[in-house]
Amino acid sequence: MAKGAILGFCTLLAMYCTNTAGYDTYELRDFCVRLTTNNTALVRWFDPMPLRKEKQGYTLYYSKNLDDPLRNWTTVSLGVYPMTTIRDISLGEVYFFKVRINFWESDASGPLSGVHHFKMLNRTKSCYENTQHALNVLRAAATSKSTVEVWWKLQYDPYKVNSIIIFYGTSDLGPWYNQSAGLQNSVELYDLVENSTYFIAVAAKTDSGLHYFVQECSVKVVLEEVPLNANVTDITADSMVLEWSAPLRLFPKYYKVSYDALKDYVDSEGVRQHYVLDKTEIVIDQHLTSYELVDLMPYTNYFVNISAVPLDLSYRPAVRVKARTEVGAPGSMHKPVIYGIIHGDNVQVLLPKASEENGPINYYYLIVIPVSDDAERDVPSSMYNTEDLLNNDWFDDEDIDAPYIAAKFSLNIPYAFILGVGVHGGFKNHKLDMHKRYRLFVRAIVLSSQGMLVTDSPYSDYFSVEEKKNYLHHNTQLVTGRTF
Ligand SMILES: *[C@@H]1O[C@H](CO)[C@@H](O)[C@H](O)[C@H]1NC(C)=O
Ligand SMILES: *[C@@H]1O[C@H](CO)[C@@H](O)[C@H](O)[C@H]1NC(C)=O
Ligand SMILES: *[C@@H]1O[C@H](CO)[C@@H](O)[C@H](O)[C@H]1NC(C)=O
Ligand SMILES: *[C@@H]1O[C@H](CO)[C@@H](O)[C@H](O)[C@H]1NC(C)=O
Ligand SMILES: *[C@@H]1O[C@H](CO)[C@@H](O)[C@H](O)[C@H]1NC(C)=O
Ligand SMILES: *[C@@H]1O[C@H](CO)[C@@H](O)[C@H](O)[C@H]1NC(C)=O
Ligand SMILES: *[C@@H]1O[C@H](CO)[C@@H](O)[C@H](O)[C@H]1NC(C)=O
Questions:
Q1: Tens digits of per-residue pLDDT, 128-171?
Q2: pLDDT per position as a tens digit, 334-376
Q3: Which atom of ligand 5 is nearest to the CA of 193?
Q4: Closest atom of ligand 5 relative to the 195 alpha carbon
Q5: CB proximity list for 246: less than 8 A, separation 6 or greater
Q6: Cys bridge to 219: 57, 140, 195, 472, which one at CB 3.0-4.6 A?
Q7: From the CA atom positions of the chain, what is the Rg in Å?
Q8: Distance CA 177, CA 189 (A)
Q9: Nearest protein Cα to ligand 4, atom 14
Q10: How many H-runs (helices) and E-runs (strands) does the chain carry?
Q11: What is the 3-state secondary structure (H, E, C) of 12-33?
């Protein structure tokens, strides 16, 4: 091989140096053919030496009959990248190949290589298995009993390549599948068969077609390099515990846990909010196989990756677990607004809505407080215990002098509400006393495994039917939105 290379080198060198015709063959370096499917093959070689003239491209000639004149061989014109795929080949037959280099600024045909032959047998080994391509990596590892992550570091021109395509199959003659990875440098293959070995090849898709990379790899669908049995336990509103077991065939230098989260909720203005929380990465000692994530947000979907990092720190895929934190107390609310007298002696109020960032609200109570003396002013709404309020019951004509629940709303709380008529959610909306002063607040309730979680709105202004004080519509135009 060394001899051939040197010979080729001299031949070309002679040609370039003297720029004379006459030397019309040369030796390609590492010419190689590899079956990629049962009727296509990848053909690949290297230039014999650094070329001193600017290459325009190559012409590949191939034929099953060595004796045919060259003009009758199949020709493939390619650019400067010395690799192409040939199609419709017949398995089991011997093919002959020659390559011509074409140069710019040259009328004459460039030099033609000597002949190479190759029997289209079963799938052959990777081209250039022995050559070092440290810069180009293609690796794969199982991430579950039916999935494999493939990752790579390949050199290509991102302006010419539209996407990277992974081809995989369990045998040469069986079906081959493919999956596009865009311009990512990893992809997950799904629906694989446990314990099977898959062969993986990779190609770049460009406007001019597919260009296979010489790298290929194989992977057995067995969990060897990833943490095993990863799961999430002890979930609360702001924490969760991750557990896993050590990988089967990788001794980790450390574990890496990385998580992000998706928030999707309706805020207090009734607007849907949707965003991704920043990624957090944690390095965990090799001896540990559990870890508690803290300071999490309630009712949020967390996506957690756990990977074992090998001693050489090279990349390994992560296993993924996800979990949603428990609900938390309802978000804050605006102050209810007293809007005005309606139908003579009822009062219309504008009710707030709680933000659902910590979880959906199960229901709301509207709590009305008759104010008899000034002492009542300083009582925080939390002093009005829900249990006590639920136990209070009055007859229709009774004088109500204690706080009461005027309405219960499940799912949706109305924007505008009339105090003094009807029954709402099983609670009597008592007629207001003309001569009494009142104020009210809204209590939002979330039911969690820890019990009832409560958030109160601020108190409304004081109001009374008689005084007609503090009514918004005396001095303001109609409120149209939920933004007060
Ligand atoms: C080469 O191709 C030409 C035209 O296609 C054909 O006439 C000729 O017989 C072929 N020669 C051989 C040796 O097959
Ligand atoms: C492919 O290999 C298998 C087993 O190695 C062999 O039985 C079969 O004949 C081969 N096929 C061809 C086309 O050579
Ligand atoms: C090649 O493989 C396809 C399926 O991938 C199969 O349908 C076809 O029969 C195979 N051809 C030969 C010649 O084995
Ligand atoms: C990828 O697979 C699909 C479905 O099997 C097939 O239609 C398509 O031609 C394949 N793409 C390539 C580039 O081989
Ligand atoms: C895969 O191999 C393991 C270990 O040999 C075995 O326990 C398991 O049953 C196999 N799974 C399948 C689907 O063959
Ligand atoms: C969670 O993972 C740990 C460690 O792998 C394991 O011991 C435990 O049984 C798992 N728990 C569940 C519920 O899968
Ligand atoms: C988890 O791994 C997947 C696949 O590699 C990746 O797409 C995702 O961004 C990772 N998520 C985090 C939080 O690191």
A1: 454 444 456 899 999 999 999 999 988 777 788 899 999 999 87
A2: 999 998 888 778 899 999 999 999 999 999 999 999 987 766 6
A3: 13
A4: 1
A5: 227, 228, 252, 289, 308
A6: 140
A7: 38
A8: 10
A9: 178
A10: 2, 32
A11: HHHHHHHCCCCCCEECCEEEEE
